[in-house]
Amino acid sequence: MQELTHWIDGKHVKGASGRFSDVYNPATGEVQARTPLANKAELDAAVESAAQAQVKWGATNPQRRARVLMKFVTLLNRDMDKLAEALSREHGKTIPDAKGDVQRGLEVIEFCIGAPHLLKGEFTDGAGPGIDMYSMRQPLGVVAGITPFNFPAMIPMWKMGPALACGNAFILKPSERDPSVPLMLAELMQEAGLPDGVLQVVNGDKESVDAILDNEVIQAIGFVGSTPIAEYIYGRGCANGKRVQCFGGAKNHMIVMPDADMDQAADALVGAGYGAAGERCMAISVAVPVGEKTADKLIEKLIPRIEKLKIAPYTGGDDVDYGPLVTPQAKEKVLGLVESGIKQGAELVVDGRDFQLQGYEDGFFVGPHLFDRVTPDMDIYKEEIFGPVLSQVRTDSYEEALSLAMDNEYGNGTAIFTRDGDTARDFAHRVNIGMVGVNVPIPVPLAYHSFGGWKKSGFGDLNQHGPDSFKFYTRTKTVTARWPSGLKEGGEFHFKQMD
Asked: What does the DSSP 8-state code read for residue 448?
């Protein structure tokens, strides 16, 4: 069995704690590797080394740092197939979906190549008699990212790209469920010219997370995961004086108006609800048709599309719609919530409980489920399922549908499908959710905009990637300079008034 490593000071390093976590092949249910779980001493040593490496990296001019990222993009494109295969093998995603995972991270790295422009400060000439004022954006020092299993390439790059471009050293604590791709990214960064120690990959669990939160050298932490853990990391990190951004769970609604193109809406719901087996924080898990006729039409369109979904391992070809869940615990949770929906009175229109894939009976596959007549008091509505389960909640009016999304405790993403521009504009302006799609089911912004949810989906005042990321990973220093000319004056003991 393969034993994975940490990546410390530019090389693979075996774990020293004696603790390991199993890494599954989700398609077969077999344990294919084990990853070391670092203790506090290992984490602290990686941070100490990173702090030493950061001094020279932070003093490197932004253009030279950007050239490392430019080379990294070339290497990502070169190894795209290799990265996607490794990602699919540990996560279970289809190959096209895995390539999309890498691609959306790559696009953020491309944006970060513009660091020299993004790090420019401000200048005021002649702010007072002989006085100039200017600001500069400087790196924080050592920063950390704690990233989830569902995007093992994209989210580490969302975090490390801006952090490194700004001149910081970066400690990455990836998910222990699928850690191979983050290690491969570190290797490519080294090949691209990143100095040893500037990027450290430390595998671990809660002990490593707590060590990150309590380490006095680490100045900032970025996290993506569930809301309870996001709240924990945000609270403890802020209490320790760190800058923290945490992104948590979601319950994304898609409102379908009576005038919507029903075929378009149904196609969007199937892709957004069942793609990646529903293991996406931007997945649409709640369809909200307005009016009984709309709801009936939507169900009629959805059923045949869902029943035709091809579920298979990533080796099944590029026409596979989705693969297995990541662990047996994930499968157990999803099926448990399906049972609760039945018991609480929801109508199970498409039942995937008995799904079995010949030859892969021990894999973590879950068939697609479609519920109708779901109500907000049911567990399948209140909880983030993170599986191939779509719920339909019927509403009588646009205002009721809007309120349903606005009253939910999560505020990550939402969408509306309609042909009416006035309705779409009203929805986009009024809804209290961070990312909104108009006839777009998964409104993930491109790299040069910022990604972030509201309410219990996001903690902290700055978002991921885009301009916000450069603000998050730097601090502003303002200099007031006076270079006397002509007669030298004596000391001044009061603020001189501006002319």
From this structure: T
> 3-state class of 147 per DSSP?
coil
pLDDT in tens, 35-86: 999 999 999 999 999 999 999 999 999 999 999 999 999 999 999 999 999 9
Dihedral Cα 238, 240, 246, 249, nearest 10 deg = -90
| Contact of 447 with 108, CB cutoff 8 Å | yes
Identify the pLDDT of residue 490.
60
- Residues classed as catalytic: 281
Where on the phi/psi map is residue 214: left (φ > 0), alpha (ψ -120 to 50), or beta? Answer: alpha
- 425 within a domain of the structure (yes/no): yes
Listed as own residue / partner, the contacts of 391-394 with beta carbons closer than 8 Å and 24 or more positions apart are: 391/285, 391/286, 391/287, 391/341, 391/346, 392/286, 392/287, 392/288, 392/289, 392/295, 392/298, 392/299, 393/286, 393/287, 393/288, 394/289, 394/292, 394/295
User: How crowded is residue 132: how many other Cβ atoms within 10 Å of its Cβ?
Assistant: 15
Domain CATH for 180: 3.40.605.10
Inside any domain, residue 210: yes
Q: Indicate left, alpha or beta for 495 from its phi (over 0: left) and psi (-120 to 50: alpha).
A: beta
